[in-house]
Amino acid sequence: KEVLDESVKNANIVVYGSGSSGLVYFTDSKERLTLEQIGEAHPGIVLGLSQHPGIGFVLVKSAEHGSMAIGKNGVNYIDKGTVEGEDPLADFGPNAAMHLRRESSFSNCPDIICNSVYDPETDEIAGFENQVGHHGGIGGNQNHPFIMYPAELPYDGKPVVGAEQVYKLLRGWREKV
């Protein structure tokens, strides 16, 4: 395809689809760009993505507000624990903000993460890949992982978020056996 707009041709952007997540990297910087930097270099891109009918929310990191999930009608200030307008994470489960806070803390986190839409009534989530099930984002059945274990092993009932906490739980059980 011929690129008609020279600014698009030289945008220096890489986009990956990973299940229900779209990962956006701006290759002009070795560090993760902040919302403010993205807005300066690419005005309107975050707002445009957050308003797209196939996107449930956009995760970015602001220099002023920290990690933010931006939806069509509201913002969840993940690091602050506050919401303005409608919470874009409301349908994604009670632990959504914890998972996104963790994801956003990684040094290799994309500049922008787009999580696809999720319909809690049908339990369906759209994907950026052609698959029956999805991974990589939040929403749908992937929100309900489980560990089957003998009832006599101790578990405090607190959410287990991320591979590190799964490892600590399993390692703790192993040390008790």
Description:
With 177 residues, the protein is α+β, with helices and mostly antiparallel strands. 24% of the residues lie in helices and 24% in strands. It has 5 helices and 9 strands. It has helices spanning 6-9, 35-41, 45-51, 96-105, 163-176; strands at 13-18, 21-26, 55-62, 66-70, 74-77, 82-85, 112-116, 118-119, 124-125. The strands form 2 sheets. A 7-stranded antiparallel sheet has the order 1-2-7-3-4-5-6, with helices on both faces. The protein has a two-stranded antiparallel sheet with strand order 8-9. The longest helix has 14 residues, at 163-176. It is globular, with a radius of gyration of 18 Å. It starts with 5 loop residues before the first helix and ends with a helix. The relative contact order is 0.16. The model has no long low-confidence stretch (mean pLDDT 87).
